[in-house]
Design goal:
16% of the residues lie in helices and 38% in strands.
Amino acid sequence: MKKYIITIIAMILVSCKHELTKEENKLVDSTKKWVIYTHDGRISKNRIQFSTYLKFSPNGTLVEYKFNDNSMYGKSTWNYLQYEKILNMYDYYEFKDIIVYEDSIVMKDTKDKDNIVRLVNWNKLPER
């Protein structure tokens, strides 16, 4: 009887495994260095100086790294609410109406509805 109960519990735990959404899969792609861009207009590596980039992990950890030496600058959490299309970052920022492209994510700041925020993959930015 004990083995039966343990088997049922194990099956329930395995079936509850969280599958990543397409938005989450883009964020946790280990080859991407995400930078936050809040201005209108063209963005390039030589136009704007970014001091840090973000890495998202599947377990909900958000790590900020320095560009100059790739050392860790800060650590926080993130989560994505699929049905509401809301991305929470740093236990403070909340973005909605997320549109995911191959190397960028466009979203609105929920605290300032006129503020359009972009997460852009640094590796794919043009030099000029």
